[in-house]
Amino acid sequence: MRKLYCFLVLILFSSLSFTQEVRPVKNVILMIPDGTSTAVYSAARWYKVYNNMGDKLHVDPYFTGTVTTFSSNAPIGDSAPTTSCYMTGVPSRAGWVSTYPLADPNDLFESDSTMAYQPLVTILEASRIEKNKASGLVVTSHFTDATPADCASHHYNRGNSKALASQMAYQNLDVMFGGGNGLLTEDIKQHFKNSGTTLIQNDRKAMLNYNDTNKVWALFGDKVLPFDIDRNYDEVPSLAEMTEKALNILSTKENGFFLMVEGSQVDWAAHQKDPVAIITEFIAFDEAVGKAINFAKNNDETVVVILSDHGTGGFSIGKSDCRGYNQLSLEELFGEVSKYTLTSAGLEEKLIEVNPENIKSEFKKHTDIDLTEDEMKNLISSNNYKGDKSEDGKSSSGMRSNIIKIMNAYMCFGFTTYGHTGEEVLLAAYHPDGTVPRGNVKNTDINDYLFRASGLKTPLTEMTENIFAKHNDVFSGLNYTIENKDADFPILIVKKGKNILKIPAFSSVGELNGKPFNLGSVTVYIDKNETFYLPKNILPKLK
User: Fold this and answer.
1) I need a surface site. Which of 38, 144, 343, 467 has the fewest CB within 10 A?
2) Range list of H helices, 89-203
3) Which long-range contacts (CB under 8 A, 24 or more apart) does 218-222 make?
4) CB–CB of 147/261 below 8 Å?
5) Own/partner pairs, 330-333, CB within 8 angstroms, 24+ separation
6) CA-CA distance, 441 to 67, in Å (whole number)?
7) How many Å apart are CA 66 and CA 21, to the nearest integer?
8) pLDDT at 382 over 50
9) If you ran DSSP here, which 8-state letter would residue 419 be given?
10) Quick check: 478 pLDDT over 50?
11) Cα-based distances in Å from 342 to 228, 306, 336, 345, 490
């Protein structure tokens, strides 16, 4: 029975490849509203209607179907394996970043156990290597979060920020806008100087006014950007502003570009069960969609693909606590959430240190809610509240969690989980010729479409063999050692005659007899099998 099941699954996935002819274009834009389920689109539209913002989303005219996303061994995915599949064409495990998964009895596709831990070339890398295209990433998360990391780095652990940050810096991206100043090391900063990359930190005006031809990173905050309605508009750019600026820069590149834009924190808001954050984050993402579509329509050489990676939270319009759900008016459903001028995170920041006697007025100011005495007690008892120095009666909940509970008590939005959900996600796409994927497709089909639209010829499997070859194959018969195996950045040392080659992990710069040179791609070290993965064409350096 098990063999029959696997066989049927293989037939299912092998029969759904994208077969339509696609004219290659210079520019490909992939846009991902992380964690966005269908109900989020509906809520965003109704929110706009209620607040006299129109009744359409920018994405609406371009819906073409749905996408079934999954991990290699589970129908419910997380951002790492799902976006990894969009980028590489191979489903992977939860937490794995553009890396071939371990085989598992529950695998949903036939895997090759000899490929475990193999870094997989992404569409971004392939576009740069084969077509000499420029590359860009625009996010509201830290730049090493799973979705951006899937585009430009590789590891079996999405939490290994040191390995991911180094790879992303050494990928020599033309544009990187997002969060994560706290992830920059002195080595990364020095590499930026060596490679002519401009670094802008916490300066919205400098980012918007940037008009150089150099590569540029603009980062905001120690880790992530604030939610859109919480941000200081003079200091922190919107996702739409970052997207538009990235397009202005990348459009000057002669060979075209690949750009990924992520509305990162729709997912984070859904994990926290915060409706006002979910809705306003998605609307902010949709504004970025408007910028991308407008750019694409003004030339004949740009494809835009818009889709989520998974749902989060089981978000719904309506919940069991709200009786007579089908009789609730627009006012009753969307009036309350429209009063909130801050998310739970933004409100927590306002309340965390105020005196107890000022909490009611401050809460009322941003939500129009008159707190009850019980609600006041819950806020003051929050384990991270600093306005009351007493340690008596502290609860196990943080203030943000208690704020969310209060807000949700006044709204009719529901949630089924704090985690991810496995339903299909909506697909939208624009191609100047109208050749876009339609109907229900799989995450593997999205990779196939991106490959074709990018005009790539070398299969990603073949490029992976050349760019991420095992060091013991490349340097077979030579004298090599791995130094500092237990350190964050081991170094492969290869000797031949008087020549000494040093290749650091998670870098694109090696040394031959003390002189640095560009490897052409990042190296990846996997401690599980003590293997460096690196370009095959390094070997001639020693001859």
Assistant:
1) 38
2) 123-131, 146-152, 161-170, 186-195
3) 218/176, 218/177, 218/242, 219/143, 219/176, 219/177, 219/178, 219/179, 219/180, 219/181, 219/184, 220/178, 220/179, 220/181, 221/179, 221/180, 221/181, 222/179, 222/180, 222/181, 222/182
4) no
5) 330/46, 330/49, 330/50, 331/50, 332/412, 333/46, 333/412
6) 5
7) 20
8) yes
9) S
10) yes
11) 9, 27, 13, 8, 45
DSSP conformational letter for 538: G
Helix or strand or coil: residue 539? helix
> Which secondary-structure segment (H or E) carries 495?
strand 491-496
What angle is formed at CA 137 by the lines to CA 131 and CA 143, rounded to 5 degrees?
135
DSSP code string of 289-341:
HHHHHHHHHTSSSEEEEEE-S-EETT-EE--TTSSSGGG--HHHHHHHHHH--
Query: Is the per-residue pLDDT at 7 higher than 60?
Result: no
What dihedral do alpha carbons 32, 151, 107, 314 form, nearest 10°?
Answer: -20
pTM above 0.90, yes or no: yes
Of all helices (H) and strands (E), which one includes residue 413? strand 413-414
> In whole angstroms, what is the distance from residue 178 CA to residue 264 CA?
10
pLDDT at 19: 62
Q: Which two tokens stand for residue 344?
A: 């739970």
Chain segment 342-379, per-residue pLDDT in tens: 999 999 999 999 999 999 999 999 999 999 999 999 99
Contacts of 162 (CB under 8 A, 6+ apart): 185, 488, 489, 506
CA distance 390 to 80: 42
